[in-house]
Amino acid sequence: MRFISSANIACGCHAGDRDTMKRTVDLAIENGVAIGAHPSYRDRENFGRIDQDLSPQDVRSIVRDQIEVLAVIAENAGAKLRHVKPHGALYNRSARDPNVARATAEAVRDADPDLVVFGLSGSCSIDEAEGLGLRAVSEVFADRTYQNDGSLTPRSFENALITDDSAALSQVMDIIKYGRVRTIDGIMVRIQADTVCIHGDGEHAVSFAKLISEALTSSNIPISACYD
Asked: Which of 124, 94, 120 is nearest to 196 (CA)?
């Protein structure tokens, strides 16, 4: 928490429960970190990383329900929910499927139209959220590799994850300073960065966050929640 500006908190469907949500919200408040909902498919067995073919109505329902649970916990702690970032397979489906992206954005709008949507840079998630009048911010990744179309390399691929500190830092600095990312094929593609994601379940999450935070600070690049 000391090295980040926004936290995406699991809302029970892929991980977490009311107790972990409350404790994480309290920790975020203590460290001045903005609180965001991290809704997913109902899939605790696979940590929400298996795609599901749900109707738009079902997507809206599960996303809205998760947002509302965390919003109440945050309110009871004296804080406010600030953003929503879908998790795992729901995030990736929303990035490429405009119907799922729109259903997700509708759930956010119905829960609280002031909430900000986090979505993959250049994806349907951004387009559909903005199309509904929501504020959307383009997200990039420190610990995932990219395909030539700007999508994330699927986790089933051997080179999907970045596990080296210097590689993660290099990717983040390239994206932020030059608006580009090197794909697994060595091609530079343009990318918009408003917020940088580090997966909390990654083996190197803390070291990545510390290294990137220190590098940005030393480069006079301010770190703050992107809606401040």
From this structure: 120
How far does Cα 7 stand from its chain's mean position?
9
CA distances from 214 to 173, 218, 219, 224 (A): 12, 6, 9, 13
Domain 1-138 carries which CATH code? 3.20.20.370
Identify which of 168, 166, 200 has the alpha carbon closest to the alpha carbon of residue 181: 168
Q: How confident is the model at residue 227 (pLDDT cuts 50, 70, 90)?
A: low
Whether the predicted pLDDT of 21 surpasses 80: yes
**pTM tops 0.90, yes or no:** yes
Residues 6+ apart with CB under 8 A from 155: 49, 161
CA 67 remoteness from chain centre: 14
Q: What Å distances lie between residue 24 and 85, 124, 173, CA to CA?
A: 16, 30, 28
Closest by CA position to 145, among listed 161, 165, 168: 161
Residue-wise pLDDT for 72-121, tens only, equals 999 999 999 999 999 999 999 999 999 999 999 999 999 999 999 999 99
Numbered ranges of CATH 3.20.20.370 in the chain: 1-138
